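Hello Y.,

Per our agreement to keep a running log of every chain we model this quarter, I'm adding this entry. I've kept the format consistent with earlier entries: sequence first, then predicted structure.
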Amino acid sequence: MKENKRNIEFINKLSDSLSGKISPLNTVNDINKLFKQYINADYTDIVIWDNNNLQLKNFAADWKVSEENTGLKEANYIYTSLCFSSGNKFFFNGEEFNCELQKEDINFINSIKENKNIIILPMVSNSEVFGLIRLTMTKTNEYSTDLFKIMNIAARFISGSLMNYILNEQMEVTLNFYKAMKDIAKIIESQYELSYIIPLIGEMIDRFMSSHLIYIFINKDNRYQLVWPNACKDEHIYEMLNKVNNKTEYLISDNSKIGIFPIIHEENIIGAIAAYSNIEKLLQKDIDYLVQLTRQSGMTIQRANVYAEVLKYATMDALTGLNNRRQFELRLNQEVSNSRRNKTSLCCMMIDVDYFKNVNDTYGHAAGDCVLKQVSGIIKSEIREYDIACRYGGEEFFIILPQTNLKEASFVAQRLRKVIEEAKMDIKDASTENVNFLKVTVSIGVCAFTPEMNTEKLVQETDKALYEAKTTGRNRVIVN
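Predicted structure for the entry above:
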């Protein structure tokens, strides 16, 4: 009776520990403690079969293969044997037994027991073995039918919970993959400049492929130029890039830690995406994902090039409705000429949304676009009809203020900064974090035109003031 109560208590506690959100390391630690307390197991580890590598991996060690663990090598053989039994058997010190033990089986087990005994139990889902529970035991004097029965019951509890975890993890990876594909395709709805969209593509793939560093190269005159991130110091990547041709689907290094995925359009190599790690190997599923993400990136880059050519002579920015960069340059030249000719005052204002990258990283680029649209709307509502507001690039805006002196421009900048600071940016239709509103601030640099300046110098001085505003604390106006 006492033994039955102890077994029921063990199964209840095991069930409780598996009912919450599973963390591999914490879950195995909890299982370890319970098996030690109730089954007298000195140590318990769990290994899962990985179809990509065709070998068992340690569940608690972030799926890494333990090449030095001789017990794990032995477990690969035992796993194969148990697969043919549909999980109806277990191993004791290398000997195979049916889960429905007979009295003679128990007698034989007790006759072959040693100072250190290894018990390997299958984890089964839908009659298929997907992993093993490996127990090391030294303290049990006599093994009994009830002891193995309770261990098998525990194995079934663990199997159900871990299989649910594995399926949920696989589903989450799949959902994240399709989200990345969708996000890459959507970039060109509002952005056409490669200098802006390639970092976005890089960030999206990098977030999905968290185990590898991602690099994006553009092919110019048969030379690969790194465009995201800022540096790549691994010579092996450049050596592999030189082996790429327009028939290459992908290249994988001998150690499987580097992958090169060419971006090809109409048999022309327009660039390449590289995945690199000095620890993790690229699995076949990673390669398959990267092949598809690279194809989507190639289509997006090509469409952006086409749209950029079409919009070359447009005047408005597609996302914000403000003047675009090309129109900004034309209007600034006009206003500088007017100011010089008529001897009237002219000021410029450059605005940057503070910590905008954090908005994109946390809530997604669709939420970032919502913020840019609403900041643009505030800018249009707070300036005069003949002032000229432009989207300078990314999250930067430029405002040309004709017939405005430095004091007046500074007043407008402070008013604009305050209105944006107090505004609630509505992102409920775009946020992936169930957040409806955001608060953002802006840094502003202000500069007055002087007759000895040309347009380039005026932009530089305004940008210098903005830089000072950002480096001295943000959410402020600096007048140069």
